[in-house]
Amino acid sequence: MEERGDDTTFEKQSALFALAVADVVLINMWCHDIGREQAANKPLLKTVFQVMMRLFSPRKTTLLFVIRDKTKTPLEYLEPILREDIQKIWDGVRKPQAHKDTPLSEFFNVEVTALPSYEEKEEQFKNQVAQLRQQFFHSISPGGLAGDRRGVVPASGFSYSAQQIWKVIKENKDLDLPAHKVMVATVRCEEIANEKFGSLMINEDWRALEHEVHEDAVRNFGRRLSSILDDFLSEYDAESVFFEENVRSLKRQQFLSKALQLVHPAFISQLGHLRDKSLEAFKTQLEQSLRRGEAFAASVRKCADSTIIEFDKGCSDAAVRHANWDASKVRDKLHRDIEAHASSVRNDKLSNLKATYEKQITAALAEPIESLFEVGGSDTWASIRKLLKRETDVAISCFSPALSGFELDQDTFDRMMQNLKDYARSVVEKKAREEAGKVLMRMKDRFNTVFSHDSDSMPRLWTGKEDIKSITKESRSESLKLLSVVAAIRLDEKPDRIESILFSRLLEGTFSIRDRDRGDSGDPLASSSWEEVSRENTLLTPVQCKSLWRQFMAETEYTVTQAISAQEAYRQSNNLLPPAWAIMAMIILGFNEFMLLLRNPLYLLVLFVVYLLGKALWVQMNIPGEFRNGIVSKIAVPCFHLWLYSFPELKIGCLN
Questions:
Q1: pLDDT band at 8 (very low <50, low <70, confident <90, very high)
Q2: pLDDT digits (tens, 9 = 90+) for 25-43
Q3: DSSP characters for 469-489?
Q4: Concatenated DSSP letters for 31-86?
Q5: Using an 8 Å Cβ cutoff, are 513 and 556 in contact?
Q6: 236 in Cβ contact with 193 (< 8 Å)
Q7: Could you read off the pLDDT of 161-174 as tens digits, one per residue?
Q8: Which of 317, 320, 451, 634 is the most exposed, fewest CB within 10 Å of its CB?
Q9: Which of 393, 389, 499, 384 is nearest to 431 (CA)?
Q10: The pTM is what?
């Protein structure tokens, strides 16, 4: 440090610069100047102390006083005098309130050494200088000259630090040395961190790991990634070890945060692959468990527990030592995916199970119900109700144990049982509606069956002895019973008057041709609903029943007419002899021809041969049988129709 006598600006600037950049400030003093005001550099010491007060730094700087051309006066006498002068200067410096009572030792380590005259004792001078040089070589060792070494700037940042310090000093700004150390450490540590971050981005190991994890889950992902980060953190620590510790730690943490942000997507990809694989494993295990016939709910619990355990192991393997990343969100999503898949499989299984039992119910009810409707007796609905209850109970008894493995809540269980019962009822209702749509055809078939067959189910032969009127009434009665059966759904065992109304108004009532299409004001069939039956259970309204009956009567009228014609034809075919008056007429009118035959026997022979041929044809072609089978009726029916429409009052009597 250059000695100057005046307390000039340069002295202050140089003193400030020396204190800012140096750990040891060496002050040369002539031995004979000790105790003098100017020659002893007292103004300079005052400047040094004032600058130190401006720094307000807890960092100690070593002031090494080198006494030159030491005389015979022992150093033990000179050092106390020098220290006393230094203490007086310290006490005379104006201090801030915070350091008013702070001793000199808090800011400076004062060391005193002496060198002999170079001209008089050259060899001794060189030896002592060499010893002093060794003290500088080991100045940073414990107990060395370099003080406490706090706020030291590493060599890599010294140039930048010195430039910034001198710039601040020349601009006459107050220098906060700790802040400057922080600034230098901030700049350099940030440069080092950015350099390491750039190297990390292009690091081959990291790029390879990133590529692998984008394709599939990587084994030992966390260990490999932690190793890569450790390498770069170690490099950062090695290059920033001499900078301000707080700044170095802060920048290290910032570098680590940026690095973790860079690798975090890879970690998320790893967790995503683990979640996907765990979900697929759950699906496979659940499918295999169900194939073995295990209960559904128990299988889901077992497979879900094992899947979550394996996922947690994978998360532990993927964990990065430098980050406390939470995998709970991915774990929760895996839980939701497992529950969603289990719910989907459960719904499919329940749907299939429900469909199986619905199919079973349909097979058990459809054909028997159709057969019961074909019979159409008074006990049809009682038989249907009995059949429905029996088959429903059978299905429920099997369906209930099948549902137990799903461990459904009571409301869901009761709802599914009720749905199965409702389905069985809907099968009956559907078949009833189908039969209602085919009732006219069923009625005509029933009429033809009863009308054309006797009590032994043998085809009727209209010989003239049958009572067509009573047979017709019986046939229509059976058809009307069928209509009353399909007019409404009777699964609730509620009584109704549908059959009695239909019989009283359609079968027992008297309808003429003129008023057939004219409604009666008091007619219960002139309505769109039955009194005892709800609209939901109504299959055929009264008006529809009346319309169907009219159509039925019109379409079966021809069958009755044909039977009457066949009966009349049969009577005529059995009367082989002509009437008596015809015989008398033939005798009287054929007397001359008869006499001619007697006179000519040859004619008689010809007539005999013709008779034999006719008789042979009569027997061979079974002419009487053909007459009975309707050949005569084909000739007689048109004539009979003409006769009936000529006398309509006779037609009404025949139909009734």
A1: low
A2: 787 877 877 766 655 566 6
A3: HHHHHHHHHHHHHHHHHTTB-
A4: GGGTT-STTTTHHHHHHHHHHHHHHT----EEEEEEEES--SS-HHHHHHHHHHHH
A5: no
A6: yes
A7: 777 777 766 665 55
A8: 634
A9: 384
A10: 0.56
